[in-house]
Amino acid sequence: MKITNEKLDIDRILYTPEQIAERVDEIARTLADRYGGERPVMACVLKGASFFYIDLCRSMRSHIEMDFIAVSSYGSKSKSSGVVRLIKDLDTDIEGKHVILVEDIIDSGLTLKYLIELFSSRKPASVTTVSFLKKTDCGKQAAQADIFGFEIPNEFVVGYGLDYAGYYRNLPYIGVLKPECYAE
Ligand code: PRP
């Protein structure tokens, strides 16, 4: 790992804070229309989705219930370990409720697949999956989000909640991390 500082490590900005805010508002409007009279459980997948989730909840102009689940499959690596670990479960009993699962990125699709199976086993009324980002080549067999913000190339992105080994989650934009930063 060769993390130094933002100026040296970020190759380029993919989405600015303004572009992000605009897209989040659009997604919030789509969800509010879809769930009009309902009060869905918005389930945030920690930690990566935290910024997107908060912005999305704040933009929703309808009733929602907020809850959090934490899973991990990357640890401090740049490639998925292939095993999803449940670190913190939802507090809410979702049986019979409408659930909106909020993710930051779909890469291999493994995390989303795991969460859809976990949630579905609890007999919710419905599960809608929302991911802020989706990799273009995330594999046809990979679980897909019902709604996503942007489709991105196969590069390592950080910021707006996404990290590399815990670094750069707090950037206000989505940026591409230079490959030399995570070269093994
Ligand atoms: C990242 C990201 C997604 C998942 C996507 O989480 O936040 O949840 O990986 O990758 P996949 O489609 O290949 O499964 P990570 O395990 O790094 O935990 P974090 O959100 O706490 O950073």
Description:
- By secondary structure, the chain is α/β, with parallel strands linked by helices.
- The chain has a single domain (18-151), classed as Rossmann fold (3-Layer(aba) Sandwich).
- Helices cover 26% and strands 30% of the residues.
- It has 5 helices and 9 strands.
- The strands form 2 sheets. It has a 6-stranded mixed β-sheet with strand order 4-3-2-5-6-7, with helices on both faces. A 3-stranded antiparallel β-sheet has the order 1-9-8.
- Strand 2 (41-46), helix 3 and strand 3 form a beta-alpha-beta unit.
- Helix 2 (17-34) packs across helix 3.
- The N and C termini lie close together (7 Å).
- The model has no long low-confidence stretch (mean pLDDT 93).
- It binds 1-O-pyrophosphono-5-O-phosphono-alpha-D-ribofuranose.
- Residues 45-48, 72-74, 80, 103-111, 163 line the site of 1-O-pyrophosphono-5-O-phosphono-alpha-D-ribofuranose (PRP).
CATH level-3 fold name: Rossmann fold
Measured between the Cα atoms of the first and last residue, the distance is 7 Å
Question: Which strand order does the major sheet show?
Answer: 4-3-2-5-6-7
Shape: globular
Number of beta-strand segments? 9
What is the assembly state of the chains in this entry? Answer: single chain
For the CA atoms, what is the radius of gyration? 16 Å
Main sheet?
6 strands, mixed
Structural class per helix/strand content? alpha/beta
Low-confidence parts lasting 5 or more residues at pLDDT below 50? none
Q: Give the percentage of residues in beta strands.
A: 25-35%
Provide mean pLDDT, rounded: 93
Helix-strand topology string? HEHEHEEEHEEEEH
Number of domains: 1
Helix content: 25-40%
Instruction: Write out the distinct hetero groups bound to the structure.
Output: 1-O-pyrophosphono-5-O-phosphono-alpha-D-ribofuranose
Number of helices: 5
In the CATH scheme, the class would be Alpha Beta
From the 3D coordinates, which CATH architecture would you assign? 3-Layer(aba) Sandwich
